[in-house]
UniProtKB/TrEMBL annotation:
This is Diguanylate cyclase (GGDEF) domain-containing protein. It comes from Desulfofustis glycolicus DSM 9705. The chain holds residues 299 to 579 of 579 of the full protein. It comes from the Bacteria. Residues 23-277 form the EAL domain.
Length: 281
């Protein structure tokens, strides 16, 4: 074949046609699934390292297709963002999660927080604050137990917009976490100006701990920097006892990962919550 994959002959690449077609089919499926409310929240525990207590759950979107299969977010969020469907889907997941968390609060676990993910498209949406306010009203979920997670790169996209949006969220009593921290390019100056409650160390830095010297230096730098800025830190992707111990020794505040629990359907998450006993400290 003449013309490389990167050359301008790529316009005539027949595989591109197929990809476009696949995207269109998928978009139709997504649109129908959103209409049928096929998106729901799974829940993954977040543990407070110092006390060993369960501090809350992160809601992670899953698509339950009518053929019985479950589709993970990596397979539908990119297209959902491109088509704007993420606004509807994201709202369904947050509503689902707020309602569920209210049930757990009513069952006596009323200290548990809920973290939700907001993608850059959702974050840029001028209706975001009204949507969240309406969702809290509708579900009666207490704002101070809600944490909104935005990725570091979304936060750095348009820092003026980020600052005013985060300030409004903070004024509503909502907590703010910067997700995937360490993978973007945020400057210390912005971190200091943004009202941020929590930094989540990206799991790509945690996976090589404690053996890898670079990963260890990066994790320690993030933890000590956030201490200076008075921001809490969570480690995501904690899979081993050694990684947990590393975080404990370096006084990281929270941890999340397969070591404690995978994302679970609501029923399994409810079981998990009622069985959870303080971790060894
Ligand atoms: P994220 O917010 O960084 O979520 C963490 C991801 O790491 C989750 O993948 C989780 O299942 C996975 N994970 C958790 N613990 C471990 C571990 O110990 N080891 C490993 N290897 N992985 C772990 P998931 O559920 O597939 O979600 C992927 C991404 O999709 C999320 O990354 C988030 O950016 C996005 N996402 C998920 N739900 C939503 C949503 O409702 N709205 C939006 N806008 N984005 C969402
Ligand atoms: Ca997250
Ligand atoms: Ca993350
Ligand atoms: Ca991620």
């Amino acid at each position: 074949a003449k013309g490389g994959r990167n050359g301008h002959f790529a316009f005539f690449d027949p595989t591109m046609d197929t990809r476009l077609h696949k995207d269109m089919v998928m978009e139709n499926h997504l649109r129908r699934a959103a209409h049928l409310h096929e998106f729901q929240a799974y829940y993954q525990p977040l543990v407070e390292i110092d006390s060993g207590r369960l501090s809350g759950m992160e809601a992670l979107a899953r698509w339950h297709r009518d053929d019985g299969t479950t589709v993970p977010p990596d397979e539908f969020i990119p297209l959902a963002e491109k088509t704007g469907l993420i606004l509807t889907i994201g709202e369904q997941v947050i509503r689902d999660a707020c309602r569920q968390m209210c049930r757990w609060h009513a069952d006596g676990f009323d200290h548990l927080g809920l973290s939700v993910n907001i993608s850059s498209i959702q974050f840029q949406d001028p209706g975001l604050l009204d949507r969240i306010r309406a969702l809290l009203d509708e579900t009666t979920f207490p704002a101070h137990l809600l944490t909104v997670e935005i990725t570091e790169s979304a936060a750095m996209d348009n820092v003026g917009h980020t600052l005013s949006t985060l300030q409004s969220l903070r004024a509503m009593g909502i907590k703010i976490a910067i997700d995937d921290f360490g993978t973007g390019y945020s400057s210390l100056g912005y971190l200091k100006r943004f009202p941020v409650d929590l930094l989540k160390i990206d799991k790509s830095f945690v996976v090589d701990l404690p053996g890898d010297a670079d990963a260890s230096a990066i994790a320690q730098t993030i933890i000590s920097m956030s201490r200076t800025l008075n921001i809490q830190v969570a480690a995501e992707g904690v899979e081993t006892e050694e990684q947990y111990r590393f975080m404990k020794e370096h006084q990281c505040h929270k941890a999340q990962g397969f070591l404690f629990g995978r994302p679970m359907v609501a029923a399994a998450a409810g079981e998990f919550i009622s069985r959870f006993r303080q971790m060894r400290t």
